[in-house]
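Notebook entry, structure prediction.
Reason for the run: the old model in the group folder had no record of what sequence produced it. Starting over properly, with the input documented here first.
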Amino acid sequence: MRSSRVEELITIGALARASGLTASALRFYADCGLLAPAEIDAATGYRYYTRSQCERAVLIRRLRGIDLSLEAITEVLAADPDRAERLLDAHVAELECRANEAARVAAQVKRALGAVHGTAVPAAELARAIAQVGLAAAVDDSAPVLTGILVEADSSALTLTATDRYRLSTRTVAPLRDGGEWSAVVAAATLASLRPWLDSIEEVVLAPRGSGVALTSGDTEHDCAGIEEPFPDYRAVLDGLPAVRTRVLVARAALLELLETAADDSVVCAVDGSGLAVSGAVTATRLPAVITGAPMDLAFRSTVLRPAVTSAIGPELMFDLAAPDQPVVVRSAIDGDLTTLVMPTFARNAKDGR
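New structure, fully documented this time:
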C-alpha cells in the first residue's frame, strides 16, 4: 500500500497542465537539476511530482518568460527575498513588457472563446516550430510520409515532429486553448508555405480536417491536405535511446561557423576533457566546451548536423552522446521544447575503446 506521501504525488502531465510548462520542458528542467521529480518509478521510469512543486514550476516558467538564464533562475529561487528582489530589479522593463503581452494574450483568448473549435497557439511560435522541425523532413518523396510533419495535439502541448531517418526533430508549443486530442501528417513544404501568413497574425487555431489540418485565423482558413501513410513511431526511438555517457555544452554560433566552412561533407568531432575538436573544416579547430563524461570521437555528415545546429534555440547547445554509432541528442542549453536526434556516420580513433 502506498504511503500518504506517495498518494499526494501527481503525474508529469498533471504538473504540465497546472504550471503551463510542456512535459518536455519539465524533463529538461529535471535534467538540469532545476526541478527534480519527487519520485521516479524504478520499473517504468515515469516521473512524479508533488503538488507543492507546482509553485516552483510556475516560477520557473515566469522567469524563463522574461529571458532569465538557467543560472540566474537558480540564483533567484535560492535567494532570500531581498536578494531576489535585487536580482529581478534589473529586469523591470522586461517584466512590464511581459505584463503587456499577458494582457494581449488574455484578450485574444477571451475573443476566441466560443469561436472556431481547435487548438489555439501563438502564430509566431508555430511558424518557428515549423521552420525548426521542417529541416529534418525528407526532400526525396520516395517515402512520402517522411516529407511530412506529424502534428499532434493534446491538453498540454501541440507537438510537431519530422524525420528523414538520419535525423529527427520534435518541438512542443504550449497551447493557448485546448482543442482535444488529434493528430495528422502534413507535407512540410505545405506548412512552410504558410510562413508569410503566420508572420502577419497573432494567433492561429489548428483543427483536424479529414486526414489533414485546417489552420484558421479570423475569416482566413488554410486547409492542408494530409499524408495518410503511418508516421514512424518516433516515441519508441526516443524511449529506446541508450544511457548518456558524455554531455557537451558548446556555443552554437562558433560551431555553426565551423560547419558552414566545412571543406567536405564529413565532419569529425573529438570530445575530451580539453573541449571539442572539429576537423573537416578548412582547418581543424578546437572549441571551448564544458564536457561531462568519457572522451569520444564521432563523425557526421555536415549536411545532416548543420541543420540541427541551425534550428536550435538559444546561444548554447547541449549534446548528449551515448556511443559513436548511436543517435546524438541535440538540445538548447536553455530551452527543452526542441529536441533533435542526429545519426553519426563513423568514428575515427575513438577514445572509448569501440
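Summary: The longest strand covers residues 167-173.
The old model has been moved to the deprecated folder.
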